[in-house]
Amino acid sequence: MSTVCEHSPLTFSSSPTAIASGYRPYSNRQLLTVATGCTRTTSDVFTHDLNAFPAPLVLPGDDIEGDPTYPSQSFREWLDLGVRNHVTSGRNVLYVAAAPDIDSKVEHMQDWQCSDTEPNTPTVPGVESIVAYLRAFYHVMEVELLQQR
């Protein structure tokens, strides 16, 4: 069953926190370099709309807010850090832990899973839905739900 997304149009502008912290969007040249890995690529050979690159969602306390001038990192640099958990035949299980139950000590957290338009209506998918999604996305791996929360 398909449902219609009721979200307002997507925005590609920076969040208020990003603007307040001094974050500045990347130029088209920088986006081309990061997307292609080549500093000499011209926009006419790149098939994607550069205006479709979303600005990062900068929230209070994020690293970008703390130091918006920190040098950027390309996907290749991130991948080459060497701290990745490589998938092997012996390491091919993705374990999913369900969120803990909310008891009376932290009852105010109940509101975190409700939309602003429909208070008291949970909008968080069940953990089984999340596991099913991850199984489809990480199809080369096993995805297991941990029984203990």
Automatic annotation (TrEMBL):
InterPro entries, per database record: Pept_M54_archaemetzincn
Domain of life: Eukaryota
Gene source species: Exophiala sideris
Cofactor(s) the protein requires to work: Zn(2+)
Name recorded for this polypeptide: Uncharacterized protein
Keywords: Hydrolase, Metal-binding, Metalloprotease, Protease, Zinc
PANTHER family per the UniProt record, alphabetical: ARCHAEMETZINCIN, ARCHAEMETZINCIN-2
